[in-house]
């Protein structure tokens, strides 16, 4: 069956460092992949979309890679700030809907 | 501008009660999605509308769950004879087109079944 895995453990990093979050999937060939941010008590907020024919995409301090051979996406936040602390979700398309991973909680401390 | 709104934000129901959760998508958005999110998990797909047509309801966990979008805008998710396992946050999202587009999420309705 299709499976999407994200780091289940929380990621704690120091302000100013680069945070790298991983999304792995199996039994699946998505056409595109999205990353969302979710704060406690709120709905997810879209960050980036990357298509299967794109290797990398950037937006300000964010960078996403998509390796369809490894079946993996990496999400990087450079020069991290305490305000970046949140849960980050990867989501893969399945025809007309998104399948979400469990999310990784990122904590950036001063 | 107005985003996706959901009401109520919190709902407490006794087991066996029926509940109705409302979603107001962004005006003009064609696609509307319902998700269920358990604590510590990612959102799980329930159902999808394109305008008023329900194109996919494969994620609805049982026939106690029913969703509608009669005029292609506001949507209601109804849960009949609620059970404790229905306790979760129910998220609604809308999108301007189907597929390949970001989804805009509402704040969710937290349902607690006692």
Write down how many β-strands of chain A occur, each being a DSSP E stretch of 2 or more residues.
11
Q: Assign an overall shape of chain A.
A: globular
The overall strand count of chain B is: 11
Q: Per DSSP, what share of the residues of chain A sits in E-state strands of 2 or more residues?
A: over 45%
Give the structure's gist in a few sentences:
The complex is a heterodimer of chains A (110) and B (114). By secondary structure, chain A is mainly β. In chain A, 0% of the residues lie in helices and 59% in strands.
Describe what this molecule looks like in 3D:
The complex is a heterodimer of chains A (110) and B (114). Chain A is mainly β. Chain A has strands at 3-6, 11-14, 19-26, 32-38, 45-51, 56-59, 62-67, 72-77, 86-94, 97-100, 104-109. Chain A is globular and about 40 Å long. The mean pLDDT of chain A is 93. Chain B is 0% helix and 48% strand. Chain B is built from no helices and 11 strands. Chain B has strands at residues 5-7, 10-13, 19-24, 31-37, 44-50, 53-56, 65-68, 75-79, 88-95, 104-105, 109-113. In chain B, strands 2, 4, 5, 6, 9, 10 and 11 form a 7-stranded mixed sheet that branches. The model of chain B has no long low-confidence stretch (mean pLDDT 95). The interface between A and B is medium-sized, with 25 and 26 residues.
Secondary structure layout:
The complex is a heterodimer of chains A (110) and B (114).
Chain A: E1 3-6, E2 11-14, E3 19-26, E4 32-38, E5 45-51, E6 56-59, E7 62-67, E8 72-77, E9 86-94, E10 97-100, E11 104-109
Parallel strand pairs in A: 2-11
Antiparallel strand pairs in A: 1-3, 3-8, 4-5, 4-9, 6-7, 7-8, 9-10, 9-11
Chain B: E1 5-7, E2 10-13, E3 19-24, E4 31-37, E5 44-50, E6 53-56, E7 65-68, E8 75-79, E9 88-95, E10 104-105, E11 109-113
Primary descriptors:
heterodimer; A: 110 residues; mainly beta; 6-stranded mixed sheet; 11 strands; 59% strand; B: 114 residues; 4-stranded antiparallel sheet; globular
């Amino acid at each position: 069956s299709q499976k999407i895995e994200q780091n289940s453990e929380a990621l704690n990093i120091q302000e100013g460092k680069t945070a790298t979050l991983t999304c792995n999937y199996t039994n699946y060939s998505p056409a595109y992949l999205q990353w969302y941010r979710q704060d406690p008590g709120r709905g997810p907020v879209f960050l980036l979309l990357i298509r299967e024919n794109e290797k990398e995409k950037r937006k300000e301090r964010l960078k996403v890679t998509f390796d369809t051979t490894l079946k993996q996406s990496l999400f990087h936040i450079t020069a991290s700030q305490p305000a970046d602390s949140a849960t980050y979700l990867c989501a893969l398309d399945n025809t007309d809907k998104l399948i979400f991973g469990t999310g990784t909680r990122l904590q950036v401390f001063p | 501008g107005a985003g996706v709104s959901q009401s109520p934000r919190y709902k407490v129901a006794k087991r066996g009660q029926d509940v109705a959760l409302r979603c107001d998508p962004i005006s003009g958005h064609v696609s509307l999605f319902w998700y269920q999110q358990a604590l510590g998990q990612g959102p799980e797909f329930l159902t999808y509308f394109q305008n008023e047509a329900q194109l996919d309801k494969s994620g609805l966990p049982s026939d106690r769950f029913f969703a509608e979008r009669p005029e292609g805008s506001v949507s209601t998710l109804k849960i009949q004879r609620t059970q404790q396992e229905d306790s979760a946050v129910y998220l609604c999202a809308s999108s301007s087109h189907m597929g390949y587009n970001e989804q805009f999420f509402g704040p969710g309705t937290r349902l607690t079944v006692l």
